[in-house]
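To whoever picks this up:

The nightly regression suite flagged GTPase Der as changed. Nothing in the input moved, so I suspect the structure step. Input below, exactly as stored in the fixture:
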Amino acid sequence: MSRPVVAVVGRPNVGKSTLFNKLAGKRIAIVEDTPGVTRDRIYTEVEWLNKYFTLIDTGGIEPVSDDIILSQMRNQAQLAMEMAHVILFVVDAKAGLTPADKEIAQMLRKTKKPVLLVLNKVDKGKTPDTYYDFFEIGLGEPIMIAASTGLGIGDLLDEVIANFPEGADTEYTEDIVKVAIVGKPNAGKSSILNNILGEERVIVSPIAGTTRDAIDTYFEHGEDKYLLIDTAGVRRKSKITEDIERYSVIRSFTAIERSDVALMVIDATQGVTEQDTKVAGIVHEEGKGCVIVINKWDLVEKNNYTMNEYVKEIRNSFPFLLYAPILFVSAKTNQRMNKILETVKLVANEHAKRVTTGALNEVIGEAVLLNQPPSDKGKRLKIYYAAQTGVKPPNFTLFINDKELMHFSYQRYLENKIRENFGFEGTCIKFNYKQKERR
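Regenerated output under the current build:
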């Protein structure tokens, strides 16, 4: 059976994201005292008493609304309810029972899922005056907590795992490929995620900046397991006017840090922008696997040279990402979308590849014979020995006589020789040098 899923739902501003962060053990959801801040579902893995489960934070539910974002938030919460094994219905002890709470409770009763009524914002040692009012909605005895201080969290988690279905997979799994979907706003990142998953799991709208949080989605494709991270688009700093947007930009960067492979999504109709170059630079500097995805290819007028010209532009814009494969896709028409996971899997394997020391030294030795190392003032660079000392990204340590003699151009030459012989498509290669003068 699959990993248990626990959804946190409730009307806006009752403390769902604060509870989500407390259960996750880190600040994942954006917390701001503004109703409707969390608009997409965001996912994380939580452990309690050696049992692991997936936790989903949802946008606040407004039961009746014509607003495009609020109505889609309601759809997202309903989807979360459908896929959840246990639902945490968060209500506000200070605000008391509201008509919206009653309507949400009615929606939840129809799910036939275990629902835990979570009474948040409770003062330590006090039963709030509103406590008994919540029995009216017919979801049992409220579990009293204070998400901001951690009061009652242990008791809540005990109840959560007690309600997991029999045979649920609560063991820890390490073989998950983490994929960050990054790029500037409105490039189609959420549409690509939805296409891969085959369902509307992330809000998609033409409003730039709709995705504010980095959204974690566990996904299995055949025998392969993935964690897809859809990030908030990176805007220019001058356009970031809200604190919420600022958090989102930071989240995009941290999503890259967490990933194994980054899908660099570029809008084909706009070409490469300054922001794309910055994001690509972060992907490279962080040593992540990279796949460059040119989305909205269906909207580009083409001739026999269009794709080649576009590839040339990408390579000129990102000279440090020459190793990254480029895919031309359309999430809207499904063009080449099947290539994305296939390429991600290839790059993830290359990112984690290890080569034998004997084979590596053979390649380095042959490279040195073909092209003599640089020299300075009569002293020539000598490479005594090489070893792969790390993966994700591949790290190579070279034992040499003088670090000052290793020019960048010769390092690039060695990198090219390593790639010619071992591949490493889609991943950068890092070099370390140990100085060792041989007597």
